[in-house]
Records
---
Amino acid sequence: MGNYKFANIVINRPIKGPFTYSIPESIKDDLDVGSVVEVSFGNKIVIGYVIGLSDKCDIENIKPINSIIDKNLRLVPDILELTKWISDYYYSSWGEAISAAVPGVLKKSVSGKRSRKEKHEEDAAEFEFIDGSDTHLTPNEEQQDALDFIMSSMDAKSHKVFLLHGVTGSGKTEVYLQSIAHALKLGLSSIILVPEISLTPQTVARFKSRFKDKIAILHSRLLGSKRASEWHRISSGEAQIVIGARSAIFAPVRNLGLIVVDEEHETSYKQEDAPRYNARDVAIKRAEISKAIVILGSATPSLESFYAAKNGKFILIELSERIDSRLLPAVDIVDMREEMTRAKKIPIFSQKLREWIEKDISEKKQVILFLNRRGFSTFINCRKCGYVIKCKRCSVSLTYHFDKKKLTCHHCNFNMEPPEICPECNEAYLKYWGLGTEKVESELNRFFPQASIARMDTDSTHKRGSHDKVLLKFKNGHIDIIIGTQMIAKGLDFPKVTLVGVISADTALNLPDFRAAERTFNLLTQVAGRAGRSDLGGRVIIQSYTPQHYSIQAAKTHDYNTFYDKEISLRKELFLPPFCHMVSLTIRGRKEERVFKVSDDLKASLEEEIKSKDIDILGPAPAPISKMKGMYRWNIFLRAKAAEDITSILKKALNRSKSSGIIITVDVDPS
């Protein structure tokens, strides 16, 4: 490594660095750029990453590096370049960005605790529950055109981004599989990102059966030793195909030729902690560095991606038909306002949905019911004084869970016994309102006592492998009806499912989020795509109190283009993404008046920095959930043509607004 005496090191802290350390003789021969080391920082011992070496240093009394974590673990130049871009674009330190790229188990963290970065990814998956078919299917005409395009770009080693827009069931996975096989022929490696591994077991099984031991699987719940061995299999070149959730984008593959981002519109590709990166955008940057191909696949692409494809930044490939020309399921929209008038109460199931469930069960077919809300009742309030029982630490109502007989906060997990009298007026007028998956399950048991019913949400499937157990039973026909949250909307392919019911299409539509219509359309289209995936055909029944909304009407006809045209014109009018980039600042603290004062001061500092730049400031305003885990929260949004215009002015403004006990987080391109 040459005769260097000093190393420039960055650490996983929100401080810029790098910091200079001397290199002890004992580790001199094993240390290089990319090494992961242990260093003293202040009065703590922390993990550091070597980003440069030098033989001169003007500072005296420099601390030495304590040790190298693992001399076989070295970050390759591509990953160092990628993490530097992440730190610049997503406004984090380089050390935080590198730390996100190195699995906690490989850092053998000094504290011995599991890395905080890993806890937000998916549950463990035991993907063995279904045999993936390893038959090499003959592509239809549309698939073949797509493959010709992708393979010729791979042959030419030219970096291109393809947006594969295919209706549900159109055979996107087969295009991925044959593109990966072509990359292998050329001696190139592939990375396949899926939103959440545990929710896409069938997809993973197909990859495993086609490529056997060439595949490595990375996800955060792998046991430590297994995760480390998979990492080393990849870096040694033994595994040339990596499949995993968002952090798999950092896998140390050799000769990267292809990155696939399946369901590219999914919000789970966005990291919640610093650095708050979006794995889809990081995938595009990594492919650019490696001159590799990217395939972004979705039946409902994000507006940003479709806009980029329409404007020639990406190459659009359309798969407009289902495999074997199977028809998309018929979609009926039921106006629940009329049902309510007829039933003189708020019904859970419309008459039409009940009749179709009855019919399909009697014919030994299967039903999926979807409701994006856990629990039994969404809130409890007093009919006399209007008091709603809320979490003591968060500004949200508590959800009643019937099986535990407890009120629970879905943000901080606080729980309590439900009171029998109102804590405010001491009267026994408490009523359980709203609707969750547990309530739907109990009503199903009442209406269809003969049916075998299972619930699939994060409450019922939090144990390792429990997703698979439910899905295996469903696949084998031991369950007639499955009721679940959005985890049942993705990637599942069950031939006997002929009916999908959406209990309430309005859940996401009423959220204070400019992407509410997009999320609603995506979810309805994805859920509807679970029906009619065999010759038995399929039907989808969507229950809604706002049936005329354009997102619901477009989902009825599986018409992405109509939805896109309407939504993009609204976004343009309001100057929202993809016509601008947004940066969200969240100011948090335990004292509300201090949070407000810092927010106000920060806005003034930003206005001073902006001056001639074309940047809008929105806020400050209380966050939609204005108190969480005992912390008051205020937001400021900034928007401009380029994210870099905003991040370039943030540093000075944030330095001026530093205040003890107040935390300010920066989220670039919030999801």
Note: The first helix runs from residue 77 to 89.
---
Amino acid sequence: MRPALDGHAGIPQEARLLFRGLSLIDDVTVEGLIQSSGRILAEGLPSKPGFFSGELSEDKRINRLSRVVISLQQSPNPRPKFFEKIGENLDYAAAATKLITSNLLGGHQQLSRFETTHFRDFIWRALFAKTLPFEDFEVVTMANFRVASIPWTVMQTCALATKKFGVALYPKLNTSDFDVMVTETPYPGTVSPNTKLVVRYHDAIPLLMPHTISDKAYHQASHYNALRKNVESGAYFACVSDATRRDLISIFPQAEARAVTIHNMISHHYFDEDSTSVRVPEIIRTRQNASIEIKHTSAPKLLAKKGQQSTNGSDQDIGSETKMAAVSDDGAESISLDYLLIVSTIEPRKNHLTLLSAWEQMRTEGFPKLKLVIVGMLGWDHAPIVKKFRPWLERDELFMLEDVPAPELRLLYKHARATVCPSFGEGFDFSGVEAMRCGGAVAASDIAVHHDVYGNAAEYFTPYSAPDIAAAIVRIVDPAAPARRAELVRNGAIVSAQYMPEKILPQWQKFLTSLKTGELGNN
């Protein structure tokens, strides 16, 4: 569950959806593993009552679990504020030393228990609320959890450090209570002999496109070495797309018999609802990225209605040159926007700047009213990208949004002229499928994974050419030729249905059964 502690999209979203989905399979009992990327977690309850621990009283049990919650944000050991960072660094160094020593002596890392009875609010808000609707509260907060106290990065660091001396030492987890352990990325550790490790393999980008990742040397080395260890130890791989599986096998051919494709599930948040675009301007105004300071060159007029005073006291509409009519339920005309949408973390691999150039070209060649709406958190090396956005941000022609809840994102997808997925490389790419489920049309970069996942439900373009991107989008949004957009929407409804939980969960059930019976691969 480590990724679930992070943001809204991609791997964090998949971790939440997969946990929820597997919890619904009748003959599968699921427990979540709480582990931090960089924080040392307090120990939970003993996995089994021991001679020395005995049965803890209720107050001591709650105290232990409460300290686990605290440790995800700060050290559970009270310290003066001045010594907090120093103490954490010392704790980190001590944990790394202890881990290496334990490995050398053949020790195992114990997984303590976390009971949710008194901490369901924490479990829900920390792990699941960013993706799942409240209807899933009972399903995920009644589950059992385990705690891995050692941070994921300490495990990686120890392996990379000891590798310099000849052998990479990966910690051994005591997973003897479990038949299968599913991890969302290559895992820097080994499991008990009776446990089968399943790596949810999202992409090989750190190896095949290392120039596009952050902290390149560390991420490439940690990914490769953990992946190699998983392959050598007999792990199984549930790849999120056929393209990802092909990449894995091209690197490690020996994993072919142990690698299957099980696509990501799409959240049941996304569906084609009967709605108008009336709320879109309000969503854009209220969800703008608060960390980006914008000096508007004109008074913001995004929510001005016909005949309503704008924020600068004039009777100006929201730029009459940019408005589209939309009719609300009571029949009143209100203001809507003509816009393209991209939902993606803002970082170089996602190719925002080529899309920006294509959009600028479209505005000068017949689509002057077209806005650009970008939904996504700020990723690595985002500053040069935001710098190029800034002139348009200041003119209220481009909008950067963050923390958009699914019901609002559903509206943005449905009423966008097109959702554009221009990335240079992906493992699955949720945004295109989500847009299709919501009744939107999709334009996507001509990369293998998009063809694999989107099929005939997208208009494709080369990601390296702004004119080609613009031409592809025009084929969707051209009001003189609406047939192509209508065709993509129809195809999208069919293609995206393949990724609903009711389609994907039987594949997981079959896969897990094959692991139990030994029908898949070789140990």
Note: The longest helix spans residues 84-104.
---
Amino acid sequence: MTPSTTKIDTWLPKLVLSLRDYSAQKFSQDLAAGVTVGLVALPLAMAFGISSGVTPQAGLYTAVVAGLLISALGGSRVQIGGPTGAFVVIVAGIVAKFGLGGLAVVTMMAGAMLVVMGATGLGTAVRFIPRPVTIGFTNGIALLIASTEIKDFFGLRTPAVPSEFLPRMRVLVENAGSVNVAAVTVAIFSLAVVVFLPRVTRRIPGSIVALVICTGAGVLLHLPLETIGTKFGGIPRGFPHFAIPDLSHVKITPLIPAAFTVAMLAAIESLLSAVVADGMSGDRHNSNVELIAQGVANIFSPMFGGIPATGAIARTATNVRSGAKTPVAGIVHALTLLAILMVAAPIARFIPLATLAAVLFVVAYNMGEWHEIRVILRLSRADILVWAATFSLTVLADLTVAVEVGIALAALLYIYRISETTSVTPVTEDYLQAGYAHILQDKQVPPYVMILRIHGPFLFGTTEKLAEATRDLTGFPPVLALRLRNMTALDATGLHAIAVLAKRLRESGRTLLLCGARDQPNALIAESALADDIGRENILPHVDAALARAREVYEDFGGVGGDFAADMSKAPV
């Protein structure tokens, strides 16, 4: 491949690259995966539309138009795009404040921002959002999504429900006596199906089974349920109509903060989803091409009556597990939804809102990253403050404010941690003696050990370097030692990056050792879940101790693929 071809390839969609060696076998796999994901996306798209304060068809139109464009133009082979839970709260807020016209403009502005980010390589800026901020607003969004579904889950009869969390909860509590027994029964049954059916089989999406059974039961038994038909009048049959939104009466300036938030959220969610897809499929996505595709999709989505879209982690994972090989599967997913719109849209009016509420409860639980709260609470007080501020503001204020304040606090924390790494101390005999155990020049590193060093602060914005250095583990020996002697500072994002590496190594049959950490990183590691996860016996004070521990690990080593262990047994130690 010539250098010019290589340069061109870096800006080509994965669909174009995939079609170079496409085959009938790949198409059959993509077809099956695409239809499966399309069925999974059907109830989710409608539910996201409803909970966002728009219509169920808006969610479906987004899944069709944006899903097709993201797969056709994107930088990931298996990414599935469409409406997601991350946007529910902010879209509802935009609609309440600026109306549907304002939402259309915000979405298109966010799309333009994403195109610029991808075209200029600014997609890497997403890395500079620290983990406590990401977890904080993910927790907050999940809680808000769940709170918006309480009314439909219990079939409550209430006046207009406020968009703010506390007033909303007050209205729900005041009207708790209006519970609809039929709605609760349908919701609990739907919840049980969605949660437990995957434990029996993953061939049939639980949400589709719940949708079919509960819709049929509601019609046949004439259950007193609120449905898509009773609330929205049903879903129009046919292809979504193209219309450029009327922007003549819309003031752009007040919409800029919301557009920036949508763009950043879309970038974060899509690239995170692409990383998950890479881990599951063994591929490597192109971040800049992916962001351009996300931008184009968000520019065109409002023209077909849609809402903001991004990469959907759960649907992408389903796509990979269903055997998808190329972006053709994502295109099939969009065409499957379009076929349903063309043929079966009138039936959708019988779907109970209680079933869709149950589906979104599961979505909220899965996206909440609730297990991460325990990890955050074991970090420094400053990290906990950043998380708590982001979480609280997401729930009690709005996502735009939450992200802005969270990033501002994290930036101050970054400056503080960098300042703490500077020290002025005399060189003493004790200092020199203590340093001998850390130096590598006089050490003989056996072939069953690889040593990687982290030099400088390992904070948010720098952790991608570790992921890049360890992307392909196939050539790694049984033991990887991370030398932290020159790692001057560590934060929650860096800690998570090391934890992810430890998990990948463990799953591949390898062992991670940490050695030589200085005071601040060592204290953070010791107090975190990482220490228990990799084993405290694998956290060593210096390289000498790490090599001794590596020998112990290797003596019990059972083999990492191929004949590595056999080959190493012949090597001198």
Note: The longest strand covers residues 449-453.
